[in-house]
Amino acid sequence: MQKDVNIVEIKKQIEDNSFKRYVLSVVSGQESLVIENLRERVNKQWLNEDVVDYICPMINETSMKKWEKIIKQKKLYPGYVFIKSKMNDKIRYVVRNTPWVRLIVWAETRPVPLTDNEYEAIMEQINKSQERSELIIPYKKNDVVLLKTWDFKWMKWSIRDIDWEKWTVIVNIEMLWRLTPVVVDVDKIELLN
Description:
There is one protein chain. The chain is α+β, with helices and mostly antiparallel strands. It has 2 domains: 2-136, NusG, N-terminal domain (Alpha-Beta Plaits, 2-Layer Sandwich); 144-191, SH3 type barrels. The protein is built from 4 helices and 12 strands, in the order αβαββββαβαββββββ. The strands form 3 sheets. Strands 11-10-9-8-12 form a 5-stranded antiparallel β-sheet, with no helix packed on it. Strands 2-5-1-6 form a 4-stranded antiparallel β-sheet. A hairpin with a 2-residue loop joins strand 3 (58-65) and strand 4 (68-75). The chain is elongated, with a radius of gyration of 26 Å. The model has no long low-confidence stretch (mean pLDDT 80).
């Protein structure tokens, strides 16, 4: 009787017939190719009903280039692909032997899926980036910039501080023979080459 219980427990560890999210470590930069290859292999093995979703989480990143706001897609986790699937030996074999897949994360004896909370946190981060793109200010302290407004137009000034949340910089402007800090929007300055 004890032997039968152990066999059932071992089979339960090897085979999971409920859909869960698993993390795959892949060669960085090859995430899209891995997803394409996985889809093709799953199709050929008739496992479409067992592996149902593939994602490489992307977020929006905003930057300024020549005074235009540019939004780019950036991988949230470079080198990782997430799949939603059942898990058994056949699926594990297909996944592990897909080109550019290094391993199933946390899979020493059997793959450990993401918890619902972990997956929801990832999705929340992606959704927030869709609502407001993360802004990268292409300047740093002490950069010499040209102002494009006011009476100081096209004069050289150095950045004293950057307010990342308000998207402004503080530049030191010379007034009456001394430096005066002035808050300027990022789109009102230009980096001196």
